[in-house]
Specification:
Strand order of the largest sheet: 1-7-2-5-8-9
Order of helices and strands: EEEEEEEHEHHEEHHHHHHHEE
Helix content: 25-40%
Structural class: alpha+beta
Radius of gyration: 20 Å
Distance between the termini: 39 Å
Number of strands: 12
Largest sheet: 6 strands, antiparallel
Number of helices: 10
Strand content: 15-25%
């Protein structure tokens, strides 16, 4: 599916931060070149017809003609990602070693693990640009080409290539069907559609996708729930859970805890923060600000990362989290989000 990222006039790119529990895009591609840097935990990506396991410190390039999707992630997973408009890439990638950046689907493997020092530097650069995007547009615009070339140089410097697992066409089709509609039949129905026996499809899917069909299906339901629920202003958790395909709130609650490591009350905290938290003041020159430092484990080195105020910039204002001892009213007073 081709996705329009909606870059406005004069905007050459964007920088985002994703954390486990945030809304994930469906299988997609876009005109912009994309780069991802995992700073914590691990994730599983499907790129074309191959699956890649990405651990902390992995830098991955995703090109315009490549369909990709995040299919699984650990509860502590976090990554930075940025996209660059084709015109910026053309102006910036002039050296011969950077020619692959100009292609839609270059030959080769474009996922490598970086050494901790380079992860630290790149993570800080992602963070600085994410902050500048809302504070100093000129600084952000000038910094995008620097981020592009810095990430590419870090990629070339590493020889630790991340391999992938080929995905059988039947497994790929089953995954796409569940992406489109998590309620697509049971295992027997799926197997009949893709032309395999139920037992063969179940084993092959788990081996190649790294996750069972039932868990994959529930993950897609959870993503649907997040899209329907949004910030909780227009619907209740129960209605959104039923709309997403969960048979009961108890089933939704169990899947939410399993996939995010948190209770659904985290949604209440985020929604309340969105309504009640005043805008973050802009640090003055020379003022380091008061951002919360987050320790990011990369190998044996702890990297200090300061996340920006807006997680992914897609659905939630910041990554969902439990705040012990904090009790806030949900925007709708949704009684189900208060369930322990």
């Amino acid at each position: 599916m081709f996705e329009d990222l909606g870059l406005g006039p004069g905007v050459d790119g964007r920088v985002f931060r994703h954390a486990a529990g945030d809304l994930r895009p469906q299988t997609h591609r876009h005109a912009e070149l994309e780069v991802n840097l995992v700073v914590r935990g691990a994730a599983s990506y499907v790129l074309g017809n191959r699956r890649y396991e990405l651990s902390a410190g992995t830098l991955t390039w995703l090109f315009p003609d490549q369909e990709h999707v995040l299919v699984d992630e650990s509860a502590d997973h976090a990554l930075w990602w940025a996209v660059f408009r084709p015109s910026l890439v053309t102006r910036t990638a002039r050296a011969s070693h950077a020619r692959p950046l100009l292609e839609g689907d270059p030959v080769g493997r474009y996922s490598r693990r970086l050494d901790p020092q380079r992860v630290r530097r790149l993570s800080a650069l992602f963070h600085d640009l994410r902050e500048a995007e809302t504070v100093d547009r000129t600084l952000f615009t000038v910094g995008l080409p620097y981020l592009l070339l810095s990430a590419w140089q870090s990629f070339l410097h590493s020889e630790d290539i991340v391999g992938g697992v080929d995905i059988h066409p039947a497994v790929d089709r089953a995954a796409r069907l569940l992406h489109t509609d998590p309620g697509t039949g049971d295992l027997t129905d799926l197997a009949r559609i893709v032309g395999l026996s139920p037992s063969h499809l179940s084993r092959l899917f788990k081996t190649q996708m790294g996750i069972s069909i039932s868990r994959f299906r529930n993950q897609q339901r959870l993503q649907r729930f997040l899209r329907h629920y949004g910030n909780g202003r227009r619907t209740t958790a129960l209605d959104a859970a039923h709309e997403a395909g969960f048979g009961s709130y108890a089933q939704f609650y169990r899947v939410f805890r399993q996939e995010t490591g948190r209770r659904p009350t985290a949604l209440r905290v985020v929604a309340a923060d969105e309504l009640q938290t005043p805008p973050r003041p802009t640090p003055s020159a020379g003022d380091p600000g008061e951002g919360v430092e987050e320790a990011v484990e990369v190998g044996d080195v702890v990297v200090v990362d300061q996340p920006g105020p807006h997680g992914t910039g897609v659905a939630q204002p910041e990554p969902m989290c439990d705040l012990p001892g904090v009790v806030r009213a949900a925007p709708h007073g949704d009684p189900l989000l208060g369930q322990p």
